[in-house]
């Protein structure tokens, strides 16, 4: 049986390195500040970690790593946003609370996978 036979541990859906910048907080525009971030999609949340060099998928466990921030995906909106940056492969995530993030990767297939997976979590939460 799976290690989560009680169903209480959120499922780790995806983890990896993306470029990230927050562009709005509570609807208020922020100055861009791109930096690499270790991004973990687990349960209903997208969790951001600093210092990606010290993070690997296997080293990530709840409690033994300090997230920089965490985003509740319920009610979130995702859209491609290449017009918001000179970088390629950029999408925007907007939370219900009016926080906005841009996420980016140089690798087309990778950013498409992230978009698809985050969207599927948002869709699942919309149906609940
Ligand atoms: O949308 P913007 O203002 O052109 O974004 C760029 C700036 O944030 C820039 O920093 P300065 O605050 O020093 O101007 C960043 O270095 C750029 O990366 C931002 O644009 P891109 O096109 O990379 O998202």
Can you describe what's shown?
It is a single chain. The protein has one helix spanning 108-127; strands at residues 12-25, 28-29, 35-42, 45-49, 67-72, 77-80, 90-94, 100-104. It is built from 1 helix and 8 strands. The model has no long low-confidence stretch (mean pLDDT 88). It is of the alpha+beta class and 128 residues long. Strands 1, 2, 3, 4, 5, 6, 7 and 8 form an 8-stranded antiparallel β-sheet that branches. It starts with 11 loop residues before the first strand and ends with a helix. It binds (1S,3S,4S)-1,3,4-triphospho-MYO-inositol. (1S,3S,4S)-1,3,4-triphospho-MYO-inositol is lined by residues 31-32, 34, 85-87.
In a nutshell, what does this entry contain?
With 128 residues, the protein is of the alpha+beta class. The protein is built from one helix and eight strands; from the N terminus they run E-E-E-E-E-E-E-E-H.
């Amino acid at each position: 049986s799976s290690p989560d036979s009680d169903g209480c541990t959120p499922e780790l859906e995806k983890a990896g390195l993306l470029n990230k910048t927050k562009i709005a907080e509570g609807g208020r525009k922020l100055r861009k500040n791109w930096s690499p971030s270790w991004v973990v999609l687990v349960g209903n949340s997208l969790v951001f970690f600093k210092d990606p060099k010290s993070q690997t998928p296997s080293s990530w466990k709840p409690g033994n790593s300090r997230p920089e921030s965490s985003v509740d995906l319920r009610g979130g909106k995702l859209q491609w946003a290449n017009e918001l940056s000179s970088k390629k492969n950029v999408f925007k995530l907007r939370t219900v609370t009016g926080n906005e993030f841009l996420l980016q990767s140089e690798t087309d297939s990778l950013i498409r996978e992230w978009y698809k997976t985050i969207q599927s979590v948002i869709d699942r939460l919309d149906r609940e």
